[in-house]
Amino acid sequence: MAGERLRAIPFDGVMAIVGDVRRRPAASTRNLRQYAAVVESIAARMPAVLPARFGTTFDDVAELTLVLRSRGATMRRRLRAVRGRTQMTIRLLGSDPSDESYRGPTPVTSRTGVRPRNKSTQGTQYLRQRLAVLRTAREVPELAPIQPALRRFVKDERVERRGDIATIHHLIPRSMVERYRSAVERTATESDVRLVVSGPFAPYAFADNW
Predict the structure, then answer these.
(1) If you average pLDDT over residues 148-156, what whole number do you get?
(2) Is the confidence at residue 102, as pLDDT, over 50?
(3) Looking at the domain that runs over 85-206, which CATH code has it been given?
(4) Domain ranges for the chain
(5) Strand ranges (E), the chain
(6) pTM score of the predicted model
């Protein structure tokens, strides 16, 4: 992001692409765009990539190696899952859960938890509320009319909610991007579903926040 040279550090079947910077990069528009450009460039050259969270830094190679050692098995498993695949993203409007007690930003993915907005002092009540939020947030009924047309493409899925917008990330084979996009747009038009489809992207939503 600062014009630094990138280099590869291999470790036990995993390769980290790193660059030396003087300080942690600020989350500016320019830096975010530059980071995305670098990640997409790497993804275009590699059969599998797990993008690190923006701003991830280590003090030295020893610290990075420690992380690779402790998370190696998980990384190799995720690399196998994304190999030869890419991320497509669908954004649906008007998908906010109807329960007013759970309105507001509540991102949900397979790698993050959910925290109900209303406080609970009873353990059982809290768990029930947590389960209700989780189930509701993963349900996207507006997508139901087009799901049958997408099943043959989708290898994995992540769902997020922010206000009245539901975002669905799909992991699909790289070779099927155009067929996937055509299927989404065609069935959405036929079913009168309001959505925006974008991609392909590196599999950010499937990197498990390493």
Answers:
(1) 94
(2) no
(3) 3.30.70.260
(4) 6-82, 85-206
(5) 6-11, 14-19, 85-93, 156-162, 165-173, 195-201
(6) 0.74
